[in-house]
Amino acid sequence: MIDGKLGATLGMEVQGGKKFEDYKASGETYEKMRKGFYEPHERLKDMDLDGIDAQVLFSNTGTFRLLNIEDPELQVACMAAYNDFLSEFCAADPQRLIGVAMISADDVAAAVREIQRVASLPGIRGVVMPLYPRCNPLNSANYDPLWAAAQDANLPLHVHQGTGDPRFSRFLNAPPEQNLRGELMATMSDGSLGNYAALSKIIFGGVLERFPRLKFVSVEGNIGWLGYFLERADRTYRRHRYWTRFDLPMLPSEYFHRQVYATFIEDRVGVRIRDFIGIDNLMWSSDYPHTDTTWPNSRKYVEEMFKDVPAIETAKIVCGNARRLYALAS
Amino acid sequence: MIDGKLGATLGMEVQGGKKFEDYKASGETYEKMRKGFYEPHERLKDMDLDGIDAQVLFSNTGTFRLLNIEDPELQVACMAAYNDFLSEFCAADPQRLIGVAMISADDVAAAVREIQRVASLPGIRGVVMPLYPRCNPLNSANYDPLWAAAQDANLPLHVHQGTGDPRFSRFLNAPPEQNLRGELMATMSDGSLGNYAALSKIIFGGVLERFPRLKFVSVEGNIGWLGYFLERADRTYRRHRYWTRFDLPMLPSEYFHRQVYATFIEDRVGVRIRDFIGIDNLMWSSDYPHTDTTWPNSRKYVEEMFKDVPAIETAKIVCGNARRLYALAS
Predict the structure, then answer these.
(1) In this prediction, does ipTM exceed 0.90?
(2) B121-131 pLDDT, tens per residue?
(3) How far apart are CA B265 and CA A46, in angstroms?
(4) Which of chain A's residues have a Cβ under 8 Å away from the Cβ of B200?
(5) Partner residue facing B190 (CB), from A197, A270, A272
(6) Assign residue B99 a region: left if phi > 0, alpha if psi is -120 to 50, beta otherwise?
(7) Coil, helix or strand for B259?
């Protein structure tokens, strides 16, 4: 219940381990659910089962709905409560459970205060803001205090596929009518478009130029499109910066390689063109316990996806890059 | 002048052959322009210069503005006038100049009539509709008569990057103010997002299932993102079709391989992953005389891009696939 209204019942966020045929969009109950989905010590056991050393934890499709709360004070209070809960959840093993605190982008001053607050909360090692902020696009100059706060707090700033996507509102509570099923499928299939547009805005908007120590992470957007993204962005820069009088001093791909990370789950194309994207910028993830998860067969998926990849590169992408970004013990 | 208002002066559509440093967004005059940009016999000479056997001709950023005309009768009349002009232009050599007639998507019945009319116009071998129609999205069932008309007329249906993109309206006449330059660059860099979303809607909307002989062409959207697009679409289909009760009988990639073509200009990533996308579905283009053109050095660009590609595959992508699609003489 959010602000007196039923946000949604649990569904897509808790399908891990089921057959695809048995996936449900809503109506799951805690009684029937794996304890690892909500209890941290059981979570650690589920990670052991799947060969996962550490997990980076994001709010789910339920808590993302906090982004839609109209009353700004209530929204700030709900997010702070969620962030406190997350810190407590990670306390079960702060080297294996890595919390990413949630902030709204509606009130930049409030977001800055929350970034400064969570920076000293145990277990919190990053912040996530909406991919589609409802007030201003990501290249808006009024976010500068927010970028500065994340940079100063040394907290990587994440954007997560789907968060704030206005297209999802019509699909929230139940499987859609016949004529909307194709649109729902298209929306699930092309969710990376939001991550693509966000990176475009961040890089061409000069955010990474103005905040050179800010780390920016594209989450659950996969990576197979990133080779094209970088090639095209550099070409646009080389061809069009004169007549547009565009004045960033570095190539878009140089900002990307210096400051951007991108996560993926299953992505054979992305793994194949990893050298175009950047071996040091990619992080595999299991998406547990959401519908796209590879749990409990992640080892098999990873082995299959990386079968033609040198071990040193695989080690970076499934472990080393995340360890460096989140400053984990080795 | 459109409907009494200045649409724009010539600029981006006529920069072919210039140094990037000399590109201009507007203010070009016929006196200073290469004759090949507007005169068909001179055009053929420019093609000879660049080693181009045949060119597929689209309306430019000027005529795309016909899509914004409010009065439906005026819009239909302007498009018909453009299509007649195009047919006359192609008469200079109908084997080398391939006309793609323009239709609006605002009035589907009028679009159907225009498709039927241009089907018998000499030189016209396809139709192009807006990538971002202003009334209904591309998966709307009310376009079914339009798909049927194109299929029956055996005219491939094209969507062209940028056409109808509401984001471009703020950049139309002049280089933008300082704070919009980055947004203009981002918009040019990520134009393929529109082609991506359009293919998603067409495939998951069941258009290619309902119209199995319709040929659908993504124009100027490049191809490096298509490997990821297809992998992700198939994965979404396999994972999510049960709970959504989605009922297309074939994989998204199977519809793509049967009915979709995609054009590109410079795209090293796309050429590298061509086998993921489909060797028979890709068509290189020179984009003459628009700003992204490789003219008059297309041979050099092609040689460089295809240096690691077997000759039989290169021949399909730079020639054979287009010859088959547009039924050109060999």
Answers:
(1) yes
(2) 999 999 999 99
(3) 48
(4) 186, 189-190
(5) A197
(6) beta
(7) helix
